[in-house]
Design goal:
Structural class: alpha+beta
Helix content: 25-40%
Number of domains: 3
Shape: elongated
Largest sheet: 4 strands, antiparallel
Pfam families: Big_5 (PF13205)
Distance between the termini: 119 Å
Radius of gyration: 37 Å
Number of strands: 12
Order of helices and strands: HEEEEEEEEHHEEEHHE
Protein name: SbsA Ig-like domain-containing protein
Strand order of the largest sheet: 1-3-6-5
Oligomer: single chain
Number of helices: 5
CATH topology of the largest domain: Immunoglobulin-like
Keywords: Signal
């Protein structure tokens, strides 16, 4: 056998070895891949958790404005929140009572009277939250026409109970419902911050601060409740 023939045989054997190794390698990889694809525990799926934002409702505006006068009799009450409100979460009550329907438009709750409001009447309404530990808010407005006192249509003692609850649990809300207030010695205003009311006392005389504190006591606020208030004197 000449050298060329020997070399050709060796080359063929070498090629066969390479081909066999390649086939064996591919078969092994395929088996591993199939095994992994059939094993549901190889790569467990991760659940995507969406954080639950516990945002707090806050009223940012009302129409008619609080204490507004000469309000048209066909007025729709609009209460705008910082978040889209949920009718299942909000309780609205008004005195004198009216028949009305409720509607949500964006971030605004609309109270639509089914009939015209009574002329010359002061309406007071309260916004409460059923499912949240948040303070209620009270607003009022006076309709156009000659003023007349209508009978109180709230359950007996309801207004007093509401005032007591606010005074004991949310003294800043309770006080905000008493203002704007002005006496001969001071003027009291308020503004709502992120989570509470801040009060400003403008002093008109040397006795202003003491007169203001005496007035707070006359509202049945205790010393500890007064200490919790955010008050600035000017």
């Amino acid at each position: 056998m000449n050298n060329k023939l020997k070399l050709a045989i060796i080359l063929i054997i070498f090629i066969l070895i390479l081909v066999s190794a390649w086939i064996f390698s591919n078969k092994t990889i395929t088996n591993i891949s199939n095994k992994n694809s059939n094993n549901i525990y190889t790569k467990p799926t991760k659940s995507i958790i969406i954080p639950n934002s516990q945002s707090t409702y806050r009223i940012i505006s009302v129409l008619p404005m609080d204490e507004e006068k000469n309000v048209p009799l066909d007025t729709i009450i609009e209460i705008t929140f910082n978040l889209p409100p949920d009718l299942q979460d909000i309780e609205f009550s008004i005195n004198p009572r009216i028949d009305s329907s409720s509607q949500i438009s964006g971030q605004t709750l609309k109270i639509i009277p089914l009939n015209d409001l009574s002329p010359g009447t002061k309406y007071t309404y309260v916004v409460k939250y059923k499912n949240r530990t948040l303070p209620s808010r009270t607003y009022s407005f006076l309709t156009q026409g000659t003023f007349s006192n209508l009978p109180d249509t709230q359950p007996e003692g309801a207004a007093e109970a509401e005032a007591k609850f606010q005074r004991e649990n949310h003294p800043d809300v309770y006080l905000s419902n008493q203002i704007p207030y002005e006496s001969s010695s001071f003027v009291l205003t308020s503004e709502f911050t992120v989570d509470h009311f801040r009060f400003t006392v403008v002093q008109k005389s040397a006795s202003a601060k003491q007169d203001f504190l005496n007035w707070l006591i006359s509202l049945e606020l205790t010393e500890s409740q007064i200490d919790r208030l955010d008050i600035t004197y000017r």
